[in-house]
Write a structure and sequence with these properties.
single chain, about 160 residues, alpha/beta, Helix Hairpins, Chitinase A, domain 3, 2 domains, five-stranded mixed sheet, two-stranded parallel ribbon, 7 strands, about 40% helix, translation elongation factor activity
């Protein structure tokens, strides 16, 4: 599996989530299973089936987080360029033909949250913006058609 880049902050959030799932959620699900077993016949026990399903989903999520963390390449703030857009860059872009400027941060897929202004490096805008410099324009394929953006500023 190829290394996925992510910020130190994103890595630490995933570590905290993994720790919570292992220490708290596993115990909660184990307790549900214990209670469901006490209801008797497991072949007709909906609570037991539901707890087993929940356990399976939880273990899959834990395994996925462990793989993600094992294959993470942390991009330290000191290594973020202000000359060209890369992982961790905070960019200001303007859609050509408008005056509206958007401020976005390029992050890994696991950290993306558009409401917080964090877009994935694999999203249409993120992918198209990579390696661009201030003053460069780039095209993004969108359902509404092709959009053109200009890079106004790059920071970290």
């Amino acid at each position: 599996m190829a290394k996925k880049q992510m910020s130190r902050e994103g890595y630490e959030k995933l570590e905290q989530k993994l720790s919570y799932l292992i220490t708290v959620r596993r115990a909660e699900v184990a307790q549900k299973l214990k209670e469901a077993r006490s209801f008797g016949d497991l072949s007709e026990n909906a609570e037991y089936d539901e707890a087993k399903n929940e356990q399976g989903i939880l273990e899959a999520e834990i395994a996925e987080l462990q793989i993600t963390l094992e294959n993470a390449e942390i991009v330290e703030d000191d290594n973020i360029s202000v000359d060209e857009i890369g992982m961790g860059s905070i960019i200001e872009i303007r859609r050509v033909g408008t005056d509206k400027i958007e401020r976005l941060q390029i992050v890994g897929t696991n950290e993306a949250n558009f409401k917080e202004g964090k877009i994935s490096d694999e999203s249409p805008i993120g992918k198209s913006a990579l390696k661009k410099r201030v003053g460069d324009t780039f095209l993004v394929e969108a359902p509404a058609g092709e959009l053109e953006f200009e890079v106004v500023a790059i920071s970290k």
